[in-house]
Amino acid sequence: MKSLRVDGLDRTMAVAGLLGTILEAPLVIGLEGDIGAGKTTFVRGLVDALPGGERARVSSPTWAVLQRYDTVPVVHHLDLYRLADDDDLEGIAFRELLSEVVLLEWPERVERAASVIDVRIRMSTPDGPLSELRNLAVAGRSERGGLLVERWLALIEELDAAPSSTGRCDQA
């Protein structure tokens, strides 16, 4: 597991956008973290970086459970917080979504969802929920996911080395 320390919401979106530039379907990314940890902000940055993302209205799908963004590739953004079990996943045709990009908030709440994750990102706010400082613990959970994480971290390193880079991501 790799750790990143990201300072600021703009930087969180920029780091997520770098991931957006290299992802390919099919892919499942699990986003874990307390309320206010920045999961939806991360999704917004990732979606904004994709072709068609400028038209997307990214918001937390807490009540809708599922948002679809008509980007390239298509992204499905799910919030599993209110789901009780695997049967609830079938009610939203989860299996059919797995051929595209799926971003799961609260994947740990439903066992079947957690079992198909390629990339796990655990977000926390070490200085409290009102802080803009984020810690991201990142891990590939599949071979594809591991390769993607390595490429993503290399892009972040390049961004941090650029003279015009504002803010940094400290990697551990």
At a glance:
The protein is an alpha/beta fold. Helices cover 33% and strands 25% of the residues.
List the helices and strands and how they pair.
Blueprint: E1 2-7, H1 9-22, E2 27-32, H2 39-48, E3 66-69, E4 75-79, H3 86-91, H4 94-97, E5 101-105, H5 111-114, E6 119-124, E7 133-140, H6 143-161, E8 169-171
Parallel strand pairs: 2-5, 2-6, 4-5
Antiparallel strand pairs: 1-7, 1-8, 3-4, 6-7
Helix pairs in contact: 1-2, 1-6
Report on the architecture of this protein:
This protein is of the alpha/beta class and about 170 residues long. It has one domain: P-loop containing nucleotide triphosphate hydrolases (Rossmann fold, 3-Layer(aba) Sandwich), CATH 3.40.50. Helix content is about 35%, strand content about 25%. The chain is built from six helices and eight strands, in the order βαβαββααβαββαβ. An eight-stranded mixed β-sheet has the order 3-4-5-2-6-7-1-8. A hairpin with a 5-residue loop joins β3 and β4. α1 packs across α2 and α1 crosses α6. The chain is globular. The model has no long low-confidence stretch (mean pLDDT about 90).
